[in-house]
Specification:
The complex is a heterodimer of chains A (348) and B (305). Chain A is built from 15 helices and three strands. Chain A is mainly α. In chain B, a hairpin with a 2-residue loop joins strand 1 and strand 2. Classes of the chains: A mainly alpha (348), B mainly alpha (305).
Chain lengths: 348, 305
């Protein structure tokens, strides 16, 4: 129980930091942080299915998140591109979300088929390349995606379903009701996904996945199709990533070519490694702590530079993210909640 | 189409040099080095720092003013510095990891962290704006129907000479042979009295010098940017995979093909107005290659599974 106690202490300290470092509007900052943490946590849960359960190196999560988000947003009423062409008809939101998740899973299938037979590092290269291809295509095919101008005015489909008491509550505490609704839905989804994953992890299928991670040849010798198992895991994680991408764009209220840049993936990885690879709740916890750290880096920027501009803020943030990934991987590869036995890092 | 061939050759020489360096390091150490691009950028940025005139404040924070020394001397100095940088990375980071039995996947994640860290250090110290070396502007001339500036022709020739030298080094010198021995089987190399720790250190230094030189060439042909390494790294991966990961001559060949292909694709009909997508074509080709011939054109099958 020791590590759960540590996790609890860190979480409480993080929340204290947030409330006491913001004199005014603590509630607003808190909701903002928890919403982003939930979205990144959900994305990290997706990578955890890949890496933590099956040992697959996915560094192109931004593409899975992006394709889910773009598919969903383009299927509901929205306004597109430079001229803001309004498309007022569309599918109902739940159907659009399901199609978005299917699109993410299909991209996983597409990338998994050529690479999952090969050694792990090939998958890393291919997924990182796929994320870059996705970004370039989104940027270049402006007719379809709105390019750098992006897509706007799609939030209503989600916000229309917001219950009145949330609007009321937000007004009382001076927080953004739209963001609160997205944040709540995100954390509900996390709980829902984790319940499913907890069942899957104990199922024969989940145990077979972990066996693939430990020793693929042994799995083959027992008559299981290791490539098929990896492919299923890859599609499942991709769909979870797609769901987080959908929440991400609803949180922003817009989506442009710059929303799903490759560095998004590294943020998510940092959250995952911090929280604990292979554990169920670790990624979500890691995402919360990660966002508190990110909020803290802005203080460091102000300490280093008199009045940091956007470039310096981003620079310091990512220097910290890079260090976090390196140090966690070297000194505490199991993260806060991870299990050392679950991690087989000496795989050659 | 033909007018793009010059640009294709230039991009090809950059990717080919970068691919040899990446492939060599991978072959000897089995590390897929995502920080390779940042070593490339280090070479380019250090050359900018050495060669720009001292009163130009275009690049660095006020506390660092450029040194303003001769350009050729800057190139040599930066290349050596990149070697030192690579050697330090091996001694301080990767050797301890190896001694503690870190697996390839853990090391790969560490190189990704390292790459993000270094790249944004550059962002903090170097401007986000693309910057050029102080070299006189030149007009493009006609060489056998290919349009290039005289300097670009020099760069191409120097690039080819460096590649030939790398080939001679790997084929004929004792250290080069030892590198290839460790690459083929580190146990057998150890048994025959090769100190594999020493060879791995030499490989890091050699590969980093080559990477730094790649960055300088890239800086001369295009410009210097904090994220130039990350942008070219994916194309270098494509070149390496195409030629065969772990090979040397294959990587050179693959790099050239990728460079020429990327630039030629600009002239294609359906690419009209989609200039950004040219890189996507190279990356898509890499994925197709992995599907049909994962060991690449010159690779051997036992390296891939």
């Amino acid at each position: 129980m020791n590590k759960y106690f540590t996790a609890f202490i860190i979480l409480v300290l993080s929340f204290f930091y947030i409330f006491f470092s913001n004199d005014s509007g603590g509630g607003r900052v808190f909701v903002n942080l928890l919403t982003f943490a939930g979205i990144y946590g959900l994305a990290a849960i997706g990578i955890n299915v890949h890496f933590g359960w099956t040992g697959l190196l996915n560094f192109g999560h931004a593409a899975f998140m992006g394709i889910g988000a773009y598919t969903t947003v383009l299927l509901i009423p929205h306004s597109l591109g430079r001229e803001g062409v309004v498309i007022s008809t569309g599918l109902p939101l739940p159907l659009a979300i399901i199609l978005g998740l299917i699109a993410s899973a299909l991209l996983g299938l597409l990338l998994g088929l050529p690479t999952l037979r090969l050694r792990g590092d090939y998958l890393a290269i291919v997924t990182i390349a796929a994320a870059e291809i996705f970004r370039l295509l989104v940027r270049d095919f402006e007719d379809l995606t709105g390019g750098v101008y992006g897509i706007i005015q799609f939030s209503d489909s989600l916000q229309n379903s917001r219950p009145d008491f949330i609007t009321q509550f937000s007004e009382n505490y001076n927080i953004s009701s739209a963001q609160l609704w997205v944040g709540l839905l995100t954390w509900f989804s996390i709980v829902f996904v984790l319940i499913i994953l907890a069942r899957l992890k104990k199922s024969p299928w989940g145990r077979a996945l972990r066996a693939v991670r430990e020793d693929e040849d042994a799995v083959r010798a027992l008559g299981k199709n290791a490539v098929l198992l990896k492919l299923q895991s890859f599609m499942l994680g991709a769909a979870i990533g797609g769901l987080s991408g959908i929440f991400l764009v609803f949180n922003y209220g817009t989506v442009q070519a710059s929303t799903f840049v490759p560095v998004l993936t590294f943020y998510v990885w940092a959250a995952l490694i911090l929280g604990g690879v292979g554990s169920l709740g670790g990624p979500a916890l890691g995402a919360v702590i990660f966002w508190v750290i990110i909020a803290g880096t802005d203080t460091i920027s102000r300490f280093l530079f008199e009045s940091p501009d956007g470039q310096q803020l981003a620079g310091v943030r990512f220097v910290i993210v890079g260090l976090l990934i390196m140090f966690c991987m070297i000194f505490k590869p199991s993260g806060i909640l991870g299990d050392k036995e679950e991690l087989l890092l000496d795989v050659k | 189409m033909i007018e793009q061939l010059g640009n294709g050759l230039l991009l090809g020489v950059i990717i080919a040099l970068g691919s040899v360096a990446l492939s060599l390091l991978y072959g000897v150490t089995r590390i897929v080095n995502f920080a390779h691009g940042e070593i490339i950028a280090f070479g380019a940025i250090m050359t900018l720092f050495f060669s720009s005139s001292p009163d130009s404040s275009l690049l660095y924070l006020d506390r660092f003013s450029p040194l303003g020394i001769n350009f050729i001397a800057s190139v040599l100095l930066s290349t050596v510095l990149c070697g030192v940088f690579g050697g330090l990375l091996e001694l301080l980071l990767f050797r301890p990891l190896r001694k503690n039995n870190f697996g390839n996947i853990a090391v790969l994640v560490v190189t990704i962290g390292l790459s993000i860290f270094l790249r944004h250090i550059y962002l903090l110290f170097a401007s986000a704006k693309p910057t050029s070396y102080i070299l006189e502007l030149q007009r493009r001339q006609d060489y056998f129907g290919i349009q290039l500036t005289p300097r670009n022709v020099q760069v191409l020739i120097v690039g080819f000479i460096v590649m030939v030298l790398v080939g001679i080094f790997l084929t004929f010198t004792k250290t080069g042979k030892a590198m290839r021995a460790v690459r083929d089987s580190s146990e057998l190399a150890n048994v025959s009295g090769i100190n594999s720790d020493y060879i791995i250190l030499v490989t890091w230094v050699f590969s980093s010098m080559l990477a730094g030189f790649t960055g300088i060439i890239q800086g001369v042909i295009n410009n210097v940017r904090w994220n130039m390494g990350f942008l070219i790294l994916l194309l270098i991966f494509a070149g390496t995979v195409l030629g065969g990961i772990g090979t040397s001559f294959g990587a050179m060949f693959g790099g050239f093909i990728i460079g020429i292909l990327v630039q030629l694709s600009v002239g294609l009909q359906f690419m009209d107005g989609h200039t950004e997508a040219k890189n996507a074509i190279a990356l898509a080709l890499m994925i197709v290659i992995l599907l049909v011939r994962p060991q690449g054109i010159f690779g051997s099958k036992d390296r891939i599974s």
